[in-house]
Design brief:
Blueprint lengths: L1 H24 L4 H13 L13 H12 L3 H19 L10 E4 L9 E3 L2 E9 L7 E7 L5 E7 L5 E4 L14 E9 L1 E3 L4 H4 L2 H30 L3 H30 L6 H26 L2 H5 L1 H14 L5 H13 L9
Helix pairs in contact: 1-2, 2-4, 3-4, 3-6, 4-6, 6-7, 6-8, 6-10, 7-8, 8-10, 8-11
Length: 342
């Protein structure tokens, strides 16, 4: 069993490295390159472990690797993997292959409603539009509880509007608002199952793995320069960033282990802390690596420039002070007192 698992793991790693290497070598049409690459990644997506199956860290390493190459690609791939894990957790087996996305943003002026198997309304902040085959989207039912719908995006009466997406960073995610007009859909799981399942927070940590991969890659540019042209100040910045990356990496290991040992628990507190820690690390990397390397890589290296532009936008999937406030509330709820004591 372990031998078979190692073979699968090795094959995935080789395939992933090949796909990402080819992506980086292709500097012609970024849109076509992204579309071709996500289709290649889908081939072995089913072999990526779900959180809590004993190989959560391997899943996050894959997401970090994709994030270290291109965050637009990571956004699509993470959403696809998250959709598959949600369906698995809710005991739903997809019958068709294709690219999935999770669209859970709320606040539209025309909220989604669902009656007699048909959905109508508007969903905002949908990435991968025009490319995704199946959308897994949320809406509020008659009791104002969150409910999941599956929509086959290859139907008529679906309008896509890219007019509101003006981002420079993450500009290639094909994010848009979607209007549905009496479109066939089906519900998945019970009301509030999407929010209340343990995997809601397990998936949130996967997003942080994408952030971390990009931050680590930016530091690698500094590492490579220090190897060829060591300088005291550059080495100081490298030491500072290495300290942040090493400690954040170890926390990923800890959280993954906790999820694998107790998969039925949400681990909301430690995952919120992980996301806050990754955000702090990434913000420091963006500032300090820029100081260490100057303007050149921002202007002359397309991989560095793209990661540096995309990462601040993707990081805003965190809610900053609102998330940190919730960490404080959760800490106060612990009966054992200050959990950070040695």
């Amino acid at each position: 069993m372990n031998t078979d698992r190692n073979k699968i793991k090795g094959a995935i790693s080789l395939s992933l490295n090949k796909i990402l290497f080819e992506f980086e070598q292709n500097d012609t049409d970024i849109h076509q390159n992204l579309e071709d690459s996500i289709q290649k990644l889908l081939i072995f997506a089913a072999d990526i472990p779900h959180p809590g199956e004993g190989r959560t860290l391997a899943r996050w390493k894959t997401l970090a690797k994709v994030g270290s190459t291109n965050l637009n690609l990571a956004k699509w791939f993470e959403s696809h993997l998250d959709a598959l894990s949600i369906l698995n957790e809710l005991n739903y087996s997809p019958v068709n292959n294709g690219l999935w996305a999770v669209w859970a943003a709320e606040g539209s002026q025309q909220p989604i409603h669902f009656r007699q198997g048909l959905c109508s309304g508007q969903k905002n902040w949908c990435s991968g539009t025009g490319l995704v085959d199946y959308g897994l989207l949320t809406y509020r039912d008659e009791c104002n509880q969150s409910q999941l719908l599956i929509v086959d995006m290859r139907q008529p009466n679906i309008q896509i509007n890219h007019g509101c997406w003006h981002a420079v960073g993450m500009q290639h995610t094909r994010t848009a608002s979607i209007t549905f007009n009496q479109v066939r859909a089906e519900t998945v799981g019970d009301s509030n199952a999407y929010l209340e399942r343990p995997g809601f927070w397990h998936g949130a940590a996967g997003v942080a793995a994408c952030w971390f991969g990009a931050a680590a890659r930016l530091v690698d540019f500094l590492y490579q320069q220090c190897k060829t042209k060591p300088h005291a100040y550059a080495l100081m910045y490298l030491g500072e960033m290495s300290t942040l990356l090493f400690t954040t990496k170890q926390y990923f290991h800890y959280v993954a282990d906790q999820i694998d040992q107790h998969p039925a628990q949400s681990h909301e507190l430690i995952i919120r802390i992980l996301r806050a820690k990754v955000e702090q690390t990434a913000q420091a990397v963006l500032e300090q690596v820029g100081k260490a390397l100057g303007a050149r890589p921002f202007c002359e290296n397309r991989i560095f420039a793209a990661l540096a532009a995309d990462l601040p936008v993707f990081l805003r999937q965190s809610h900053a002070a609102f998330d940190v406030e919730r960490i404080g509330e959760l800490v106060l709820q612990q009966s054992e007192g200050a959990a950070w004591m040695l």
